[in-house]
Amino acid sequence: MFGHKKSQDDTLPVTVQVVRSADAYNEAGKLWNNNSRGVVVDSATKKEVLHFSLVQPKTVMWVQRDVGRTDAIELIISWQDDHSVIAEVFVILPGPDKAGDDTYVRRVLEGLMTTASTVPFNQTEGK
């Protein structure tokens, strides 16, 4: 998918945003700590990853960070829209300074903590 282009359907539109916010970083940390039993290490990327899946609308989300690094958390949201896969990446940095609008990121993180239809990704595969 990355680095080459086979057809129009083989591309992945991605937006990347950096958010520096103590509130968003704390929410991400709370989500990470409350679901730490589901954290796996991706040997290819050397990242610790925590997957979630949302049934309606069908969306895959995950938070990840470099192994041993605690000063940045990435939130990735991916869904399909009219035959295209779309992804949003949010790099969440701690405060106290603030940069970027953290409203959307905090709402997503809070939703992952409270939405009953959100389950760890490995549980949706019957593991």
Q: Could you explain how this protein is built, in words?
A:
The protein is an alpha+beta fold and 127 residues long. It has a domain of 87 residues. Helix content is 23%, strand content 38%. It is built from 3 helices and 7 strands. Strands 1, 2, 3, 4, 5, 6 and 7 form a 7-stranded mixed beta sheet that branches. The longest helix has 13 residues. The chain is globular, with a radius of gyration of 15 Å. The N terminus and C terminus are likely disordered.
Secondary-structure map with pairings?
Elements: E1 14-20, H1 22-34, E2 40-42, E3 47-54, E4 59-66, E5 73-81, E6 84-93, H2 103-114, E7 118-120, H3 121-124
Parallel strand pairs: 1-6
Antiparallel strand pairs: 2-3, 3-4, 3-7, 4-5, 5-6
Helix pairs in contact: 1-2
